[in-house]
Amino acid sequence: MRTIANPIEGSEVRVEPKQSPGININGVAADLEHVSKADVRVDLLDDTRANDTRPDDTGADDTRSDGTRADDTGADGTRSDGTRAFVVEHVLGPLGLYGITAAEVVGIREEWDFARPEHRFAYATDAGPASVVGHPAGLPNPELAEALGRASVVRGESEPRQTVSQPVSFEAGGGEIQLRPAACGDGIEFDVQYEDASISVQVDPRETADDSLIDSVAQSTTPYLSPTDEEAVTHSVADLVSDIAVLGGFDDLVVDVTLAGAYHALTVGAARRAHEDGVVTFRE
Amino acid sequence: MSLPAPETVVERASDASTDGDVNVVVAGDVDTDSVERTDDGYVGETAGAVGRLAAGSAAGGTLHYPSPDFTAAGPWIVLAPLAGFVSTVATGVGEATVVAERETTSQPGRESITDQLSALLEAAQPTHEHYPVETDEQGVFTTGMTTFELSSLVVEDELRATFRVSTTPATRPSDVTDRFADVPGVERVDYETVVGVTRADPSAALREAVEAAHREVRGDCEYEWLPDPGVFATIPGGEKLALGTGTPRAGAFSRAQYQTCVELLETTLSNVDPRSEVGSPSNAGSDT
Question: What's the pLDDT at A48?
Fold first, then answer.
């Protein structure tokens, strides 16, 4: 287990140390069970918890057209929508690239940017802007990556490493992916194709990745906003680390993937398929 | 699932049952003369509204057409071009009038009227630090931005341009007027709110009925804003939600969109338990 020694901040989020394995975002566990949306982005949802990421202020942003304010709760005093964390891959990618496996992530955004669809979603469900932890420029949070680079890391007890016992193939949205077993301790080899660009990287989700890789990934915009296929495929490394390593829990794999469109359905779907097929194995 | 002929859609809607527990109304104008039925659905200027009206007739509930009875008891579902999303928020509308001294080319060093108009229209264009809003035809980003649409332009002794302004909860009158401050010759900008932003606050039971229907039919439930206040803003009280398929100004509404719209509404209606607290006066929520 690896966590940080002291709290740090990046764009949109504060990350605090955690003394037990696993990453929480706004109190929701970052695992496959809590993924409620995986296509153009990844959202986590815990529908057993009331949403507590509403803005504390009483500014005009929450003022209705007639000057009144929306109540803090639904008409019957409850919320049907639980705690939702939007665009978590922009946080989980950098954490995974730095090998952080235990952390409490809290959204800190206070201002609305309604040009962002996730902010409109949050406003419509009476959640606050802090529920959106994705980076406003579509980047894998370079400010968080920089802070992680300066942070002291604390190691806890080692845990079994996760891989697959046999290959898992999955297709979705025009893309295809295969997860293959790798030797214990090898980490994950990602061989990625996106449009006319490709990239091959090696990442151990329990160690800090190469500085130049982290820097290039953190500075690359999401494919929807990316000016080139090369930048898009570089960005996708953060998404793959988020979805396969952090959410899927894998430590040792060889991943061959051709990405297309809303590819989180592919990457999260592959991790889910491995669990459904019963081929996930653990080794000391 | 067969699509009714456009000319019969209005007749069916007018004769629809009025004994449901949930009120249903369709946003937007319906003009069946402008719509044709094809093998794949409806095409024409109001194809979406016609398709959603047909879906409303097929799914049940108390369909209000052509004139909604806003005194009716119970919750309201608005069928709107939401591409399968759910909405509790509708953008507002304002009107901005820019009055400027007319520029002439006879005065050296000053811009021509063409330059002045170009500056005016450029000032009205959306901009964003990170997103390609200039080419955002689907409204992925601009739905949540203060945007301007030129509605009239008079150039006589002075230049007078009127814009329809789509507003958000973040829109401030000063933002609107400041927008045109650098246009050459501007003397004043008048702004008034026509319809404020609507933010409904439906009961948890109504939300859950709608959300569960979307999870069942579409596999997920996502929220988006209505790009026009329309009938959603007019319905009194907060016990209302909008849903529906199709996109604004699409000019076509497919058979698949019709089927999904019917399924979403049917499932929502079946999820509303009349014994629940949905729509009860003590839980009607507050309006905008």
Answer: 76
Query: In this structure, what are the phi and psi dihedrals at residue B43, rounded to the nearest 5 degrees?
Result: -130, 150
Which residue of B132, B140, B220 is in closest CB contact with A117?
Answer: B140
Task: Give the range of the structural domain holding residue A113, as residue numbers without chain letter.
Answer: 2-153
Please report, for the domain that includes residue A205, its CATH number: 3.30.1700.10
Same domain for A244 and A110, yes or no, is no
CATH architecture of the domain with range B6-89+198-283: 3-Layer(aba) Sandwich (3.40)
Same domain for A31 and A79? yes
- Taking the alpha carbons at both ends of chain A, their separation in whole angstroms is 13
Does A79 contact B168 at a Cβ distance shorter than 8 Å? Answer: no
- pLDDT over 90 at B114, yes or no: no
Give the orientation angle of helix A89-97 with respect to helix A229-240, to 10 degrees: 80
Residue A75 pLDDT class (50, 70, 90 cuts):
very low
- Its ipTM equals 0.91
- Taking residues A56-79, what's their average pLDDT? 34
Closest CB to B199 among A37, A70, A114: A70
Range(s) of chain B covered by CATH 3.40.630.10: 6-89+198-283
Find out whether A94 and A141 touch, Cβ atoms under 8 Å: yes
Final residue of a domain: which of A153, A174, A201? A153
Structural contact between residues B253 and B117, judged by C-beta atoms closer than 8 angstroms: no
A138, closest residue in chain B (CA to CA): B130
**Mean pLDDT score, B58-62:** 89
A270: left (phi over 0), alpha (psi -120 to 50) or beta: alpha
Q: Residue A260 has which token pair?
A: 């297309």
The shortest CB-CB distance from A120 to any of B211, B220, B224 is to B224
Q: Alpha helices, DSSP H only, in chain B?
A: 6-14, 47-59, 113-124, 173-179, 204-218, 230-234, 255-271
Domain boundary among A153, A171, A188: A153
Residues on chain B touching A120 (C-beta within 8 angstroms):
89, 143-144, 223-225
Give the mean pLDDT of A31-46.
96
Q: Which residues of B touch A44 (CB under 8 A)?
A: none
Whether A164 and A92 share a structural domain: no
Q: Return the higher-pLDDT residue of A102 and B110.
A: A102
Q: For B92-195, CATH number?
A: 3.30.70.360
Closest chain A residue to B147, measured at CA: A115
**Which residue in A48, A54, A65, A132 has the most chain B C-beta atoms within 10 A of its own C-beta, making it the best mutation to test that interface?**
A65
Contact A241, A192 (CB under 8 A): no
A78 to chain B: nearest residue by CA? B204
Give the model confidence (pLDDT) of B213-248 as tens digits: 999 999 889 999 999 999 999 999 999 999 999 999
User: Which residue of chain A comes nearest to B281, CA vs CA?
Assistant: A75
How many domains, chain A? Answer: 2
Query: Alpha-carbon Rg of chain B, whole angstroms?
Result: 22
| Chain B residues lying within 8 Å of A136, measured CB to CB | 129-130
Give the pTM.
Answer: 0.90
Residue B2, min C-alpha distance to chain A (Å): 29
